[in-house]
Records
---
Amino acid sequence: MRRAVCPGSYDPITNGHLDIIGRASKLYDEVYVTVMINKSKKGLFTVDERIDLIRQVTSEFGNVRVESFHGLLVDYCKQRDIPAIVKGLRAVSDFDYELQMAQMNNGLTGVETLFVPTNPTYSFLSSSLVKEVAAWGGDVSHLLPDAVFDALSRRLREQ
Ligand code: PNS
């Protein structure tokens, strides 16, 4: 069974994430989409809400499991016997930090990181930008799955 993980904050999942997860799901038998918990960062969505949204929008792939983890990504990979991390690269600006993490993770346990070039349609897309634009009333409906757009609109109205 070939396994990979697509880790992230997913606050919330965007069409850019979904593109990478969908592509990973074609390359691997089982793809874990894992919300890495960062207690020092307060999200717009709770970890359970993020998981619920990711489950809704990845169910069509059929081989995606969604969960959360608090700790080092390499420890998660060991626990689950996952040899590969799949990450999307949007632009050269992502590369420096992603390379550092990939090299650190590989040095720690030998886990490999595979970089997938993001679809150019989403090269500017991040959860933070989407939240900022939406908070100021900008239209982000084309950047998010419908269920996520609805959840984001509701959450911003509540605030
Ligand atoms: O969606 P993000 O916030 O860009 O994802 C970054 C994430 C969560 C994948 C990264 O910060 C991470 O792997 N965190 C888990 C803690 C860890 O292993 N840190 C050491 C990285 S070398």
---
Amino acid sequence: MLDKVQELQQYVNSFSATSLEELEDFRISFLGKKGKVTLLFNEFRNVPNDQKKEFGGQLNKLKKSAQNRIIELKQGISSSQNHSNLDIDLTAPAQPYELGSRHPISIVKNEIIEIFSSIGFSISEGPEIEDDWHNFSALNFPENHPARDMQDTFFISKEIALRTHTSSVQVREMENNQPPIRTISPGRVFRNEAISARAHCFFHQVEGLFIDKDVSFGDLKQTLNYFTKKMFGDSAKIRLRPSYFPFTEPSAELDVSCTICNQKGCNVCKYSGWLEIMGCGMVDPNVLDNCNIDSTKYTGFAFGMGIERIAQLKYQVNDLRLYSENDLRFLDQFKNANY
Ligand code: DAH
């Protein structure tokens, strides 16, 4: 008897129908008053007691799957019939494909990469989950520096955190290569900040590093001047202001002349005519030594910029949250970008 149930089960599994009539025949022959399944149910009382449980279970399963199969096939048949009834105009012009666009962060990242590649910088990447050494200690952060604080950093454990900047990649590059090193490192970084128009818990940076014999602050200035003009146009001017970073000495902040008001004064540059776009400086000898590079032989410069910040100035995006909301009305506006 069980064999019979299994045989019917196999039939149900492989049954298919192309018309509603065929399906109705199947229903009657299986589930109708004299259908195969119904007859088996009538046999139930003749099954020995110790087999009743298994037989009953299998039989119920068979009935269920026959019912489901009918529903499934019915849907298939009616949807294909609907199609054939559709009033299709075969002469209508085709719907054009909607072209997607690159994300503005990718566009700006690619443009930065292109500019630095053209003057000999390689591209390097590092992990987003980073250890204390690469994110802080090797970069000369004092033990109690506020940037290590829980408020800024997403810690995974005491020693492991989400990287707070791409400067961690310059450490990895120096540890694994000897000068000359000339590389940029684009990537995503994380900070434990409340999300608002002006701050986000993740954003993107490009780190730059150049180490060789006799690299000077003049080289830094010329390189960044070249970059700024390529990025914002020949009329863009730069200004370097003294600043502090643990990993550079001396350190500076680089401002670009306001691309929005041409230095006439506007609310983006807060009527100063200048916009801050990156931090930079000469790599601190302690950092070189930490990464096994002889600081008596080599010098170098480094810089780091936020991609969102550059995109904000290029495209006048005034709310950081737009970059990660995937709103097509925002993303659609970047269709004409070249990168
Ligand atoms: N890591 C810094 C930050 O996240 C940016 C930076 C400043 C990078 C100066 C550098 C540098 O390489 O020299 O704010």
